[in-house]
């Protein structure tokens, strides 16, 4: 069994080393601890150790886990990483602080409307399907500029950055470099990329948010 607090400490020092190795300020890289499928027994020690930024894949699961934990620990920040359905937008805006999976106009519109209604501004990342995989969510690379422009100009949304999940069987560096290029071309600072097995590569290529789950909490069942 992995000790999540020791693993968290190890991941944080690897993030710092990777950032320094790339000539970057380690504080420019945010660790999102991906807690999907894990319960309080894994989360409590990590919260007690001071981690406050967590990623979840599903609105429903996050709703069962986080409202109570948020009353016990100040300053928790929740990031939604998985696909969002438009009928879940209201709950997502109420519970989350950031969404990494904005991937179609219908969702962007629903988020804009709900954020206005609740007087909340969530940090929004546009998911790009860098590998153009048919089964994977995200905007095609060549459509990214138009999509970001629509979010900004029509919906008056502030976009924090871009997010990708590289294909499992390809060199992630190529996808991270493509995402960084698209972000540059669109004047975006945020880059949500890198998971347990490739976050150091992602940091070398400019990641501002790394999403690390199993390397902290252990393999999911
Ligand atoms: C599960 C998940 C992660 C974390 O993956 P690990 O390999 O466990 O680090 C990161 N991003 C997304 C979108 C995920 O669904």
Describe this structure in words.
The chain has 221 residues and is α/β, with parallel strands linked by helices. The protein contains nine helices and eight strands. It has helices at 4-21, 40-48, 59-72, 89-95, 105-118, 144-153, 172-185, 199-204, 214-217, and strands spanning 30-34, 53-56, 77-80, 98-102, 123-127, 161-163, 190-192, 209-212. The protein has an eight-stranded parallel sheet with strand order 7-6-5-4-3-2-1-8. α4 crosses α5 (105-118). It starts with a helix and ends with a helix. The model has no long low-confidence stretch (mean pLDDT 97). The site of pyridoxal-5'-phosphate has 13 residues, from β8 and α9.
In terms of topology, how is this protein built?
Blueprint lengths: L3 H18 L8 E5 L5 H9 L4 E4 L2 H14 L4 E4 L8 H7 L2 E5 L2 H14 L4 E5 L16 H10 L7 E3 L8 H14 L4 E3 L6 H6 L4 E4 L1 H4 L4
Parallel strand pairs: 1-2, 1-8, 2-3, 3-4, 4-5, 5-6, 6-7
Helix pairs in contact: 4-5
Bound molecules: pyridoxal-5'-phosphate.
């Amino acid at each position: 069994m992995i000790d999540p607090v020791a693993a968290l400490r190890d991941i944080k020092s690897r993030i710092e080393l990777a950032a320094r190795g790339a000539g970057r300020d380690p504080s420019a890289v945010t660790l999102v601890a991906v807690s999907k499928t894990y319960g309080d027994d894994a989360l409590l020690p990590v919260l007690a150790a001071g981690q406050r930024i967590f990623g979840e894949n599903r609105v429903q699961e996050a709703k069962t886990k986080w409202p109570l934990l948020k009353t016990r620990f100040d300053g928790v920040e929740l990031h939604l990483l998985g696909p969002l359905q438009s009928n879940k937008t209201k709950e997502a805006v109420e519970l989350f602080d950031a969404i990494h999976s904005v991937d179609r106009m219908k969702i962007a519109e629903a988020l804009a409307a709900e954020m206005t209604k609740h007087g909340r501004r969530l940090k929004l990342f546009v998911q790009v399907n860098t590998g153009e995989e048919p089964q994977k969510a995200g905007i095609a690379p060549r459509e990214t500029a138009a999509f970001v422009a629509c979010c900004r100009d029509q919906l008056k949304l502030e976009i924090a950055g871009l997010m990708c999940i590289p294909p499992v069987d390809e060199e992630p560096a190529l996808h991270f470099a493509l995402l960084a290029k698209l972000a540059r071309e669109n004047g975006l600072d945020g880059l949500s990329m890198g998971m347990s097995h490739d976050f150091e590569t992602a940091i070398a290529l400019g990641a501002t948010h790394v999403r690390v789950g199993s390397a902290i909490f252990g393999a999911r069942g």
